[in-house]
Specification:
The protein is of the alpha+beta class.
Amino acid sequence: MMKHLMLAAASTAILAFVAACAPEATTPAEVAEAPKPAVADPNLTSLTMATDPATLGFNAAAFEQARADIEAGIKAGKIPGGLFLVAKGGQVVNITAVGTEGPGDADPVTPETIFRIYSMSKPIVSVATMQLVEEGKISLEDPISKYIPEFANPKVLVGKGETRPAAREITVRDLLSHKSGLIYGVFDPESELGKMYMAAGDVRYDISALELSKAFAALPLAFDPGSAWRYSRSTDVLGAVIEVASGKTLDVLLNEKIFTPLGMNDTHFYLEADEFSRLAEPPTTIAPLSTPMTKAPMLSGGGGLNSTTEDYFRFTEMLRGKGSYRGVTIIKPETLDAMLVDEIATGVDRSTWFYDALPGAGFGLGFGLIPIDPADASKGKYFTWSGYAGTNMWVDPVNDITTIFMMQNNEASADFRPLHAQWVYGGYAPAATSGPASGSAQ
């Protein structure tokens, strides 16, 4: 088959890359629809190339700039290789694959190269959560203590060991929108709360996500749930919550509800031995935050998945298709619409929001919502998230564009992130025959 954890602080220049009702039962008098396939064929490539990108509004010069920038990064020793993909209407207009899968590795980067996608795991787990919302197995307004009782009666850290009762409990919605009051200890290890997180096992893989969540539940929150946005372990806790709600481990749940239906056969928390040779490795002295070749109890919904460009493109195409891909429906269009409503637009402290320098940027249920044109937010937004080691994805429903960038070095991710929008939109002008998709981003 063709085959993350934290965003770098936003650049203020060009960062614009930067339960509905169930269907009615049919009656005997109605004409039955043809059955839809349960699985998108994993052996049929998702990377359908456009005959002529120019007819879809793209100038190849921007893609050549992408190649030059990636090659410069390789020459500077920042990355061994990278892959940049752009598609419109499901047709791939560019695949720029440069360099190799790791330092001293002769294998070239291809759409089948496996990358630690870190926080690009979060949109996947968020979609799986919304599937359970559709099924009535969980509610966005549920307090998470319903599933993990240890989270009942939370407290907020005042400072120097002092706490006060929180205004309310954490809800599922808070986890999805990073308004939970949780933090990432690994990214703030010297703060008072960060030290507590590190002591509780913030970077451990020898315990399960549920065990880690229970350890975090014993700690105070950084703020009252719902009052502020802060990037955090929210999606890891969410993964544990949906394990309890579904009665299945997160790997099994994601396989059954997303990976198998979409044909994402190379997306896992841990790799099989025959996949080891395709794993991209970084040229860094800082150890990766995940160990995909060594199986462990931790199934990190916030940053533990590994995937290929081919596989993740299937996921982004499902999102572009308003929840469906090749006849397989993952979520309903109205569910995806609900995920693209800005959860931090009003009444929420945005002081730690990555993109607050961009007017109109916001965050939904698992996705960043970023203006396509930072100079004119009325042109709409794309929805996006990226990964700790530099991977990135977005879906632009206004222009019907999807894009993925794969690299593997957290120490260099900030060097490439501001370039993505230039690569995608630098040579793009909607052609007469390639008009924007109907509708717009939320």
